[in-house]
Amino acid sequence: MVGFAAAGLVLLTFTTKEMRQLRLIALISNVAFITYGVLGWLPPVIVLHVVLLPVNLLRLLQLQRGTAPGAEPPVRVHAIQQTADGRWTVYLALDHGSATAPDKIAVQFADGESSRSAAKIPAS
C-alpha cells in the first residue's frame, strides 16, 4: 500500500504547476518511497530516494530564498508610461517572496539622458 501511495505522489508532482508545491510533494514522496524500500528491502529504491530527498530539500530552500536555478525573477515590469514632456516612467514590482504585496518602484528617464532617477511608490 505504501508503494502505491508513493507512486501516486510522484504522479501528482507531474500535474503540479507551482515549483514550491512540486518540491514539497516530491519530499513527501521521497519519504514514502524510503519507507516502501525499507519495508520490502529494495536497496535501489532506498538509495535513489535517500539521494533525492536532500536534493529536493535544497531546491525547496533555494526557492524560498529566491536563489534556485530558474526561480522567478524578483523584479518584473509592472507598467510603462510616457509623460507629456517626453519622459518615460517604468514601474517595477520587487517581489520579496513573502505574503506582503511587492514593492513598486518608479524609474524615470528621458531619451538620450544618461542619468536616471528612481523613487519608491508608497503602498496603496
Can you walk through the features of this model?
With 124 residues, the chain is α+β, with helices and mostly antiparallel strands. The chain has 2 domains: 2-65, no CATH class; 75-121, no CATH class. Helix content is 47%, strand content 23%. The protein is built from 3 helices and 4 strands, in the order H-H-H-E-E-E-E. It has a 4-stranded antiparallel beta sheet, with no helix packed on it. Helix 2 (19-39) packs antiparallel against helix 3. It is rod-shaped, with a radius of gyration of 23 Å. The model has no long low-confidence stretch (mean pLDDT 78).
Which keywords apply here?
47% helix, alpha+beta, 2 domains, 124 residues, 4-stranded antiparallel β-sheet
Please provide a brief summary of the model.
This protein is an alpha+beta fold.
- Using the alpha-carbon principal axes, give the shape: rod-shaped
Low-confidence stretches: none
Could you estimate the helical fraction of the residues in percent?
40-55%
Number of helices: 3
Number of strands: 4
Structural class, from helix and strand content?
Answer: alpha+beta
The end-to-end distance, rounded to whole angstroms, is 52 Å
The major β-sheet equals:
4 strands, antiparallel
Instruction: Trace the largest sheet across and list its strands.
Output: 1-2-3-4
Q: Please give the domain count.
A: 2
Average pLDDT reading: 78
- In percent terms, what proportion of residues is strand? 15-25%
What is the helix/strand order?
HHHEEEE
Topology of this protein?
Elements: H1 2-15, H2 19-39, H3 43-65, E1 75-82, E2 87-94, E3 103-110, E4 117-121
Antiparallel strand pairs: 1-2, 2-3, 3-4
